[in-house]
Amino acid sequence: MRYTLVLWALVVCGGVSIVLGEHEVSDANSKPVAVVTSISDDLSFDENGKLKSFHLLFPLDSPNCPAATYTPRTGFESHAIAGEALDLVFPDYQAGDCVAACVERGTDQTLAGYTMPHFHYDGSVEDSSFDNWFTDKCGAIEVCLMNYLIKQRPLQLYWIKPETGEAHFQKDLEYGERNTHCFRSYLGHKFEVKFEDGVLDAFTVEHILVKAIGKSKPPDSSSRSFEEEIVGALNNEWKRHYAVKRTFSPLGFAKGRLPNDVFAAMGSFFYNNRHNKIREEWGGRGVFVNWWETEVSFIQIPWHLKREWQIRLADLVSAWAGVPVEQTMMYGLRQYEEGARLLTHVDRTPTHAVSLIVNVAQGNLTEPWPVEVHDHADRLHEVLMEPGDIVYYESAKNLHGRNRPLRGNNGYYVNLFTHYRPIGDGDTWHQVLNQTGVPAPLLEATGECHLDSPISTIPPLGQVQCDDQRLGSHLSPSLLQAKTPEDLINWWRRTGPNYEGVSSPNSPPKDHDEL
Q1: What is the chain's percent helix, strand, coil content, to nearest 5?
Q2: Cβ of 354: how many Cβ atoms within 10 Å?
Q3: Domains of the chain
Q4: I need a surface site. Which of 85, 216, 328, 370 has the fewest CB within 10 A?
Q5: What pLDDT digit, counting tens, does each position of 71-97 carry?
Q6: Is the dihedral of CA 487, 488, 494, 498 positive or negative?
Q7: 238 vs 18: which has the higher pLDDT
Q8: What secondary structure does DSSP assign to 374-422, as a single string?
């Protein structure tokens, strides 16, 4: 009954005609638009619970604002919103505000309505027309193309003119990830990729798109001794992690959660492009991912979208690290699949002071697949992540990896990685020591730690109880505290799929002190 009173007030004051039974509203200058009071109930979702369309949303009680009379581009549905939907999309809304928001196709039903700041229109912004805002922020769709088909000569990209069907040359597509070509287009636009007058591929823009023509080839692994390379790499990583003295937190890592709007954006991008993954290029990159044993896939992030994510994530990392940070690199999306392992390592010292792991999606796992982080005293912690979870970590100093193989038929685990360093300290950030207000690293813990439940083949993660609460809730059930690079090597072997030793990966390591 409350909504009926609100709508009747609009009939009297705004000259708006309303059909309550069909939740439809219109005025003299526009076609009828649906009234949405619940995002999850009133919008259309596919069989996987993802939004079927793009949507332009605006408040029902602002009929004279530009969004109410605007006809969006093809591919968008326009809706007036009220009640719960209004509270969700515009939590700070005050009656009469001229605001609007765009919601992306592919957004999960549980997150639909949470939108990134650049998808919000604020009518108080001067010198900006609504059409210009919509065209720039919502209507323009990023497309990224990669040539993995032919190295010797580029492929040719053509735009198909809607009115005539004529093909207009746009760009040569050179080979490989480093030559990824990103551009802005619009929903419904059609393109062809040609080589020597033959059409290799044709596609229509339906969402932010990353697409490869052809498939990247795996590096040659026939003449390599991977065990020897891994042992050498772990010895080197042990030395590297001791070279960095600067710290930002007591343990060197922490678990957190993405804001809903950022998670919604990342989830929709992955969902819309989940079939466009390619084999990640690992030639010359070492043995830190076991690419020779299992497929490791990659989905490139378009440049503009990456920039919007960077802005939000940098604020989170700055708050955790206690200092303003600058973005140095964002990498992903990387999709690990069944059997994947990530060797213990540290990241590049000049650029990777503090970092984020973001779990965007996962599925079909039969065992937990924890991220392993050694704290400042080299105690091993194993952190479980769900989609939308983040792990902050001091990646140039704290050893980290995922040595346990990913288990599950058709299992997958999709991560984004983003890296930062303190603003103003440059490549030598690690030499800036003794900052005021920085918590001391937890090197000496008090008391003892023990397992709350019997050891099993599946890690009983989160079930280690410690007298010293500062150690947190993620301590590894192995109670491993590394003292030498041999400990890293032994851990890699003990967690391997074919290990035939006496103890399980969860067993407390022999010849080591209690934590």
Answers
A1: 25, 30, 45
A2: 27
A3: 2-128 (no CATH), 140-214 (2.60.40.780), 226-428+438-494 (2.60.120.620)
A4: 328
A5: 988 889 999 999 999 999 999 999 889
A6: negative
A7: 238
A8: E-TT-BEEEE---TTEEEEE-TTTS-EEE-SPP-STT-EEEEEEEEEEE
75 CB-contact burial (10 Å; exposed 0-12 / middle 13-18 / buried 19+): middle
66/69 Cα distance (integer angstroms):
6
Cα 435 to Cα 112, 360, 470: the distances in Å are: 42, 34, 21
Instruction: Give the residue from 381, 404, 403, 379 showing the smallest Cα distance to 392.
Output: 381
Q: Token pair for residue 32?
A: 């009828």
Are 157 and 201 contacting, i.e. CB atoms less than 8 angstroms apart? no
Mean pLDDT of 442-455: 83
In this structure, how many other beta carbons lie within 10 angstroms of the beta carbon of residue 455? 17
> How far is 221 from 227, CA to CA, in rounded Å?
12
Distances in whole angstroms, Cα of residue 31 to Cα of each of 22, 24, 180, 207: 15, 10, 41, 25
Dihedral sign from CA coordinates of 464, 469, 473, 478: negative
Q: Which residues pair with 175 in a beta bridge?
A: 147
Residues 257 and 356 sit within 8 Å (Cβ to Cβ):
no
At which residue do the structure tokens 């009929």 appear?
A: 63
Tokens of 265: 């954006």
Collect all residues with Cβ–Cβ distance below 8 Å to 477 and sequence separation of at least 6.
382, 451, 455, 459, 460, 461, 463, 464, 506
Say what the pTM is: 0.89
